[in-house]
Amino acid sequence: MSELSVGALSGLAANSYVIDVASGSTLDVTNATGTLPSAQLPAGSILQVVSAVKTNQFTTSSTGWVDVPSLNATITPSSSSNKILVLVHIGLQGNTGSAHMNFFTLFRNDTNQMTAPDCISGAYQNNSGTGVALSFALYDSPASTTAKEYSVGMRVNGSTGVLNRIAVNNLTTSESTITLMEVAG
């Protein structure tokens, strides 16, 4: 493997950083410590992605926030000026015979990041127990370079909510996901 080390390139137009790489080849843009030099990327660039998938069911009748097991992920921002985009997708079903709401929120290191009434997401369940899918996002500013754990909290206002089950027969299931993206600030 050949290595080319360049301190600076001259003759390029301002903000013109185009490097052609032959098909089948790769370009390593990490620094000496093996990390991506985020300071050199434009604001809005995605620096890293972390995700978790929950495939088994979770049932709750709690009217207070409870953590959804295995629906959490941890990310360590490379700069305190960077943001974290959190994307959540949920499949759920309410209990038959009782209309109610399932509510979801996001916690960062056990602190609720979504405040009522503006950001809490709910999914209405009708009396048939029909399942629904729900997605929501949060653009967070942790202002830190220490590890941050994001987790999904769930509560109901009546009866029982079932995460990852979308049909009454208990045979049709779904997956729920949480994805964290570090965005250059």
Main beta sheet: strand number and arrangement?
6 strands, antiparallel
Distance between the termini: 34 Å
Q: How would you classify the helix and strand content by structural class?
A: mainly beta
Order of helices and strands: EEEEEEEEEEE
What portion of the residues fall into strands of 2 or more residues? 35-45%
Descriptive account of the structure:
This protein is mostly beta strands and 185 residues long. The chain has one domain: Jelly Rolls (Sandwich). 0% of the residues lie in helices and 43% in strands. It is built from no helices and 11 strands.
Would you kindly provide a brief summary of this structure?
The protein contains no helices and eleven strands.
SSE inventory with pairings:
Blueprint: E1 46-54, E2 58-60, E3 66-75, E4 83-94, E5 100-108, E6 111-112, E7 121-125, E8 131-140, E9 148-156, E10 161-163, E11 176-183
Antiparallel strand pairs: 1-11, 2-10, 3-9, 4-8, 4-10, 4-11, 5-6, 5-7, 5-9
Structural features:
185 residues, Jelly Rolls, mainly beta, 11 strands
